[in-house]
Amino acid sequence: MSGTVTAVSSNSEYSFTKPNRAGITLLAGLGVAGDVHAGVTVKHRSRVAQDPTQPNLRQVHLIHEELFTEVGEAGFEVAPGDLGENITTSGIDLLGLPVGTLLRIGDEAIVEVTGLRNPCLQIDNFQDGLLKKVVGRDEAGNIVRKAGIMGIVQAGGVVRPGDPITVELPDEPHRPLDRV
């Protein structure tokens, strides 16, 4: 399985959206250089309030560009970086990947998938009603989170739009993604 990077984004300040960049640098064990969420320990405000010593399993946020088309059909305008992701992808079923999947991005970078993004009310502050489009329930009543996946940087490198992404699945049995 493979895909492509369609956009990269980062922000050195806390804000919901992240501006697009020509490239971002991933740092092993830390995340995106210069991004507010980079670090060994958790940086998301709600998680810091719970326990600031937790390991940062959310160093890199990836969203599939196909989500923008899906919510667009419901009348929402969402572009790369709008939902705070660092890497926007195309051609990969990110939500279907198991925990521990390695994403080889560009020439050097490797991101290990840790789980699903747990969308929050900030999404409705961005566009009213959007949260219901990125979090819902399946036929069995299980919560379905569509707002991307999170990962940690195993190997650093520069990531740019147009870079290839190769998916390397972990050994079985696979563990499905859960919120991190």
Question: How would you sum up this structure, described in words?
Answer:
The chain has 180 residues and is mainly beta. It has one domain: PK beta-barrel domain-like (M1 Pyruvate Kinase, Domain 3, Beta Barrel). The protein has helices at 45-50, 66-72, 122-126, 131-134; strands spanning 2-9, 20-21, 24-27, 31-32, 60-64, 87-90, 102-105, 109-116, 135-137, 143-145, 149-155, 157-159, 164-168. It has a seven-stranded mixed barrel with strand order 1-6-5-11-8-7-13. The chain has a three-stranded antiparallel beta sheet with strand order 4-3-12, with no helix packed on it. Strand 9 (135-137) and strand 10 form a beta hairpin. It is globular, with a radius of gyration of 15 Å. The model has no long low-confidence stretch (mean pLDDT 95).
- What is the CATH architecture assignment? Beta Barrel
Categorize the overall geometry.
Answer: globular
Question: What is the highest CATH level, the class?
Answer: Mainly Beta
Proportion of strand residues: 25-35%
Radius of gyration equals 15 Å
Described by strand count, sense and barrel closure, the largest sheet is: 7 strands, mixed, barrel
- CATH homologous superfamily identity: PK beta-barrel domain-like
Helix content: 10-25%
H/E topology pattern: EEEEHEHEEEHHEEEEE
The helix count comes to 4
Would you count the extended β strands for me? 13
Strand order of the largest sheet: 1-6-5-11-8-7-13
SSE-based structural type: mainly beta
Q: Poorly predicted ranges (pLDDT <50, ≥5 residues)?
A: none
Distance between the termini: 24 Å
Query: What is the arithmetic mean of pLDDT?
Result: 95
CATH topology description? M1 Pyruvate Kinase, Domain 3
Number of domains: 1
Domain MOSC: 19-168
Organism: Kitasatospora kifunensis
InterPro entries: MoCF_Sase_C (IPR005302), MOSC_domain (IPR052716), Pyrv_Knase-like_insert_dom_sf (IPR011037)
GO molecular function: catalytic activity; molybdenum ion binding; pyridoxal phosphate binding
